[in-house]
């Protein structure tokens, strides 16, 4: 059972819903609640990635998945402000 859960977690972490985006030749990263302050740019609009929030809520009992989804991958860059 543990092997199945670990395989599921690994797969989900590799296929997160949000992606980094290149805008005007600069790559902007996704960010979350516990990301470093220098990851978020004030000149870029971000949107909430609802797929990652859903996965974090579904996998709340695994502890690791919500930390990743909510902590580092909750908002994704969309466009320049």
Structural class: alpha+beta
Strand content: 15-25%
Helix content: 25-40%
Shape: elongated
Order of helices and strands: HEEEHHE
Largest sheet: 2 strands, antiparallel
Strand element count: 4
Strand order of the largest sheet: 1-2
Instruction: Tell me the span between the first and last alpha carbons.
Output: 47 Å
Helical stretch count? 3
Q: What number of domains?
A: 1
Spell out the key features of this protein.
81 residues, alpha+beta, two-stranded antiparallel ribbon, two-stranded antiparallel sheet, elongated
Short description:
The protein is α+β, with helices and mostly antiparallel strands and 81 residues long. 38% of the residues lie in helices and 21% in strands. The chain has helices at residues 2-14, 50-58, 64-72; strands at 21-23, 26-28, 44-48, 75-80.
Topology:
Elements: H1 2-14, E1 21-23, E2 26-28, E3 44-48, H2 50-58, H3 64-72, E4 75-80
Antiparallel strand pairs: 1-2, 3-4
Describe, in plain words, how this protein is organized in 3D.
The relative contact order is 0.27. The model has no long low-confidence stretch (mean pLDDT 84). The strands form two sheets. Strands 1-2 form a two-stranded antiparallel sheet. The chain is 38% helix and 21% strand. The chain is elongated. The chain is built from three helices and four strands, in the order αβββααβ. It is an alpha+beta fold and 81 residues long. Helix 2 runs antiparallel to helix 3 (64-72). It has helices spanning 2-14, 50-58, 64-72; strands spanning 21-23, 26-28, 44-48, 75-80. The protein has one domain (2-80).
């Amino acid at each position: 059972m543990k092997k199945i859960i670990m395989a599921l977690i690994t797969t989900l972490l590799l296929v997160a819903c949000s992606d980094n985006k290149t805008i005007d030749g600069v790559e902007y990263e996704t960010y979350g609640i516990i990301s470093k302050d220098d990851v978020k740019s004030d000149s870029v609009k971000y949107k909430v990635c609802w797929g990652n929030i859903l996965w974090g809520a579904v996998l709340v009992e695994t502890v690791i998945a919500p930390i990743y989804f909510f902590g580092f991958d909750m908002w994704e860059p969309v466009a320049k402000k």
